[in-house]
Structures are given as structure tokens and as C-alpha cells.
Amino acid sequence: MRTAVDFSPLYRSAVGFDRLVGLLDSAARADAAPGWPPYNIERLAGADAETGDSYRIEVAVAGFRPDQLNIEVKENVLTVTGKKDADDTTRTFLHRGLAERSFERRFQLADHIRVTHADLANGLLSISLQLEIPEAKKAKTIAIKTGSDTPTVLEAAE
Questions:
Q1: What is the residue range of 8's domain?
Q2: Residues 7-25, mean pLDDT to the nearest whole number
Q3: What is the average per-residue pLDDT within 43-69?
Q4: In this model, does residue 1 exceed pLDDT 60?
């Protein structure tokens, strides 16, 4: 059994960390969210710090056509929605075990994560993501000068 966590003391005492506290708060609320459709989040092999990290989110969307799915990124939130057409009342089911309902699934993205492309195959929607670190934030090597490397001062002509 999980108990609710009150993050309000952090809002009062941590200046500039409100986004982090908001993420913790939304993660705590996400535990109560429905678990459908199921999904995987995968870090792809071969990713390194120099080129950035690559990720893939796979969402099980069996029975959905590409025109019934929508992927949107806004303010570091990736939203995947599926809208099913109106139920076909001409079909008679003896057992209905496939979930054919509309859904909305949200993923909080880190800064500098870019969605590169999405594919739908075999009932899986695969969304590829890439962490692209800006040049200003990448590590830089600084050359160390010695006493002999210092430039000489030219004397002014009289």
C-alpha cells in the first residue's frame, strides 16, 4: 500500500527546483493511472555520451490504424493518443477480450530529447528518441600553457 507524499515543504524551501518537485509529484500520481496500453522504454545499445543517448518507446496498439494514432510533443511532454471509431454494432461477440478503446499515454521527456521518428508494425508503435546535447553544454578540453608558451611582448618603436 502506498501513501500519498506531500511535496509542499519542498516548494517552500527549494528555489529553482520546482520543476523537479513537479516531476516527482506527477510520477506519484501516475502510479494510479491505468496501465493500458502497455509500453516499453528501451535505451538502445551503442549509445554514448559523445553522440547522445538513443531511446525507443514501444506502445502496444494492436487494432489501431496509423490514422487513428497521434503523437505530439509539447513542453517536454510526449503524448500518444489513439482514437477508435464508433463501435460497429453489426458484430456479435461471444467473447470480447481485445481492448478497443481510445487512450492517451503521456511521457515526460528530459531537456534536449528530440523525437526522431515513429513506426507502426505488427501492432507496436515504436517512437525513436535522441538526446542531443547542445555544443554549449558539452565538455570541453582546455589546453594548459606553460611559461615557455606565453607570447612575447614586442617593444614599441621610438
A1: 1-33
A2: 69
A3: 82
A4: no
pTM for the predicted model, two decimal places: 0.68
Q: Give a three-class secondary structure readout of 125-158.
A: EEEEEEECCCHHHCCCCCCCCCHHHCCCCCCCCC
Residues 64 and 7 in one domain: no
- Structure confidence by residue, pLDDT tens digits, 114-138: 999 999 999 999 999 998 888 888 8
Task: Report the alpha-carbon distance of residue 101 to residue 82 in Å, rounded.
Answer: 8
What CATH number is attached to the domain comprising 74?
2.60.40.790
